[in-house]
Amino acid sequence: MQFSICTTNYQCAHALDRHLESVFTHLKEFDFEYIVVDNKSKDGSLEILKKWEGQHSNMKVLSKKCTMGEGRQISFGHSIGDYILVLDTDTVYFPTSQEFLKIYLEKYTDVAIQAMFLGVFPRPIWEQIGGRRSMNAFEDVDMWIRIWQLGKMRWYPVLMGDNVKEVGGTYDFLSTRYNKRERITRLLRKEYDLLKTTKIRELDLEKTAKENTIDLGLGEMRTDWFSNYPKLTRKENIKRFGREMKRTLKG
Question: Which residues pair with 7 in a beta bridge?
């Protein structure tokens, strides 16, 4: 099998049908399987996923309370494809995604490439670096950098889909998909994940991505996608967290 789509879902019922329709339409000429771990959604997501699973023999739906990183790793454990695709269930994919994968198979199968909202990873590389770690925040960057350290990571800053996440601003922990308790939990989890990725965030991420960017000629490449994390003192971090907690409680 060429591709295994390994993804997670939580509270994305608002986008799931459109997401799945785009995937099964644009990737239909490829040999692929779609494996998704639903994180005990409460918005009808599991019912939608089960409906699609019943209509597509190459789809597998699992249900487990987990972080995003853990969920992707669980789905990987059930996969058999030569290349792993990481998609987001709140993204409706463009036909460009098909062209992206065609070019990948023709020229780049020895490296991992991350486009915007779509990443493709050779199975041996995924296995070599140990896959995704159990995190909700920065789990993608954490994996990219570990692959970069092998000299096998490339970035392609072109949109592969339209992200339709319902969020309150730009932060996941403020999303209207979550009740107040969940928003607080996700904020605290983000802080924990920040601690786990301290060394990675100290790297010059913007320079790293720029030096390893490739151009596949499928659209205008963004210059504002990858940026360094602000270096804050302990006091500044406490103040930042206080502001974020205040917004979370107010939301």
Answer: 36
Q: Enter the tokens of residue 187.
A: 């904020």
Pairing of strands 32-38, 59-63: parallel
213 forms bridges with which residues in the sheet? 155
Q: How far is CA 89 from CA 148, 212, 239, in A?
A: 26, 27, 33
Q: What is the DSSP code (8-state) at residue 86?
A: E
pLDDT in tens, 6-60: 999 999 999 999 999 999 999 999 999 999 999 999 999 999 999 999 999 999 9
* pTM, to two decimals: 0.86
Domains and CATH numbers, the chain: 3-166+203-227 (3.90.550.10)
Sign of CA dihedral 10, 11, 13, 19: negative
How distant is the alpha carbon of residue 238 from its chain centre? Answer: 28
With beta carbons less than 8 A apart as the criterion, state whether 41 and 9 touch. yes
Angle at 35 between CA 34 and CA 38, to 5 degrees: 130
